Amino acid sequence: MVDFLLNTVKPHFNFWVYVILMMIGLWSLIAKNNLIKKMMGLAIFQTAIILFYVSLGVKDGATIPVLESYGDYAEKAEKAEPAGPEVAPPDATPAPVVVNPADTYANPVPHVLMLTAIVVGVATLGVALALCEMIYKEFDTLEEDELLRKIKALHDDA
Amino acid sequence: MILSFDIIILIFLIVAAVIALNVKDLLSSAMIYGIYGFLICLLWAEMGAVDVAFTEATVGAGVSTVLFIATILNTRRRSSD
Lengths: 158, 81
Description:
The complex is a heterodimer. Chain A is mostly helical. Helix content of chain A is 66%, strand content 0%. Chain A has one domain: Helix Hairpins (Orthogonal Bundle). Chain A has six helices and no strands. By secondary structure, chain B is mainly α.
């Protein structure tokens, strides 16, 4: 048990927390009776997935993805790497190490993808809540069991 | 990533999610959902995703809380579970 905690849970504890959040959302979608609570669970489920994707772009010791100097790096890289595939003589001094500025900041690609996902998620949440309001106007309740009973009574009458 | 900050926010996230889903008063549930959104916003700023943090603070925590409150004020405030 302790072994499992140290070797499996500890190195990726954030992923475990995301899965717990996801399961909280799924549980509320299945087990909650109120439609608004279900929508809240859906939003929590979605944020857990977005958290997972954004955490894939995190690097150790990296800062926010803002490019500070572009031209400087290009000049240095040109000087450091001679053109052509010729092999350097074995006693030549090693070329100076040029740090690529992309290594010093977090990967911005998952950020941009998840930005879209957040906006789309809020739009779908708005549609879902509007549907909840329509259901309330029609049946005068948002509880699932009452709704099912009323719909069944409606079908029995018809 | 600052480890202790990360752990504290993740614990608060789980607590906020469970409380938001278990409170019977839907208006306080929506407010706790807003707290959850701002905690996630903090987590993203800490991960280096400042653009996502801005969007979450305005759209995720702000607009979706307003949508929840608008729906609750137009329907019923009490929930059975």
